[in-house]
Amino acid sequence: SQQGEEDPQALSIQEGENATMNCSYKTSINNLQWYRQNSGRGLVHLILIRSNEREKHSGRLRVTLDTSKKSSSLLITASRAADTASYFCATVFSGNTPLVFGKGTRLSVIA
Amino acid sequence: DAGITQSPRHKVTETGTPVTLRCHQTENHRYMYWYRQDPGHGLRLIHYSYGVKDTDKGEVSDGYSVSRSKTEDFLLTLESATSSQTSVYFCAAGDQTTDTQYFGPGTRLTVL
After folding, report:
1. Phi and psi of B83, rounded to 5°?
2. Subunit contact A45:B100, Cβ cutoff 8 A
3. Environment class of residue A55 by beta-carbon count within 10 Å: exposed (0-12), middle (13-18) or buried (19+)?
């Protein structure tokens, strides 16, 4: 399967701490995207990082991409209870193929 | 949810009955997608469309068909529903396969 794999599957932290989630994939990519899903809702796009980029920031989010290791990480700084959600990485492989989603990391931020 | 609606939001049906789920978008996106989400599997692509009347299969297309007669509407049909098709179904839309996808709120389907 070309599906990316997130690690850990679940993460529980205290409010104010940083949360780090990782995504590994198997073949070369065009770009990698991170999405958030709140319970009972659809997915919401967070950030896209292209294969020639190494790091991107968006507010409290920091995404890194290491194409040599075929891995990406999502860092959420100073987490809040509202960050409680599942986070998915999605990879776009070379060519005109749709996104492939991983199984997600379930983040719980405890107030 | 970026102008994407799904109907119905919840449906309970019996094995063997046909079911049609509708996705409607208002942003004129070229691409539309149907996914199913199951515990332990994440999101899996069922079918997608790259234009009116242009569709292609995804990873888990068996037992499903789709149609897109207008840019704004993408229908997913289960010709004869089975219990294994109990799932949450998400529609998404976007402008390129490589770009951001915008998701609808989901349809929870239960097949008894």
Report:
1. -60, -30
2. yes
3. exposed
DSSP state for residue B96 in the 8-state scheme: S
Q: What is residue A2's predicted lDDT score, i.e. its pLDDT?
A: 60
Q: For chains A and B, what is the number of CB pairs under 8 angstroms?
A: 53
Cis peptide before B8 (omega within 30 of 0): yes
Res B16: pLDDT = 97
For A47, the closest chain B residue by CA position comes to: B100
What is residue A98's predicted lDDT score, i.e. its pLDDT?
83
How many CB atoms are located within 10 Å of the residue A44 CB? 15
* Cβ(B68)–Cβ(B32) below 8 Å: yes
- pLDDT at residue B81 tops 60: yes
SS3 labels along chain A:
CCCCEEECCEEEEECCCCEEEEEECCCCEEEEEEEEECCCCCEEEEEEEECCCCEEEECCEEEEEECCCCEEEEEECCCCHHHCEEEEEEEEECCCCCCEECCCEEEEEEC
The whole-angstrom distance between residue B67's C-alpha and the CA centroid of its chain comes to: 10
Nearest CB neighbour to B103, from listed A43, A102, A104: A43
pLDDT confidence bin for A1, thresholds 50/70/90: low
